[in-house]
Description:
- With 197 residues, the chain is α/β, with parallel strands linked by helices.
- The protein has a single domain (5-194), classed as Lambda Exonuclease, Chain A, CATH 3.90.320.
- Helices cover 39% and strands 23% of the residues.
- The protein has six helices and six strands; from the N terminus they run βαααβββαββαα.
- The chain has helices at residues 13-21, 23-30, 40-56, 112-129, 153-172, 191-194, and strands at 11-12, 70-79, 84-94, 97-105, 135-141, 145-150.
- Strands 1, 2, 3, 4, 5 and 6 form a six-stranded mixed β-sheet that branches.
- The longest helix is centred in the C-terminal third of the chain and has 20 residues, at 153-172.
Amino acid sequence: xxxxxxxxxxxxxxxxxxxxxxxxxxxxxxxxxxxxxxxxxxxxxxxxxxxxxxxxxxxxxxxxxxxxxxxxxxxxxxxxxxxxxxxxxxxxxxxxxxxxxxxxxxxxxxxxxxxxxxxxxxxxxxxxxxxxxxxxxxxxxxxxxxxxxxxxxxxxxxxxxxxxxxxxxxxxxxxxxxxxxxxxxxxxxxxxxxxxx
Length: 197
């Protein structure tokens, strides 16, 4: 990820997650900003996220396969070199290494968009703390499911490509294709502007 910071359009980690879920969300945020509708799904997600934060403080590290360490909540991360910022839900700092953790409230398995969101946090942790991150965790509730996400060279390469694709779309002001699954459109905050129903 050797790009010159002066050439980089600043992105948020959430842009990577959104772009993989539906690239039009990122398009409407950057290229054609409109007043978005706050959906019930968004409000519910915020409420559940707060609940997961509260419960995490009581959870034992052994659930992550770790014996000891420190929990750091809501860690602000930034890289001028990568042109990327975000707030990580939880950073586990242990003798075995640094592990980013993202909380998700979903009955489904975490998707690729969540995996690459976590990968973006991993590269930010690496740069900010000068460490190597080999893996992170997605904690999904209900069900208290923890998925280990390995930070492979292919994951890092794909993340770099994703950031390039997002920046190209924004700079070219080109509306991307809608996602194949129109089920994602049903409760979208941009539904009335998008034209996909």
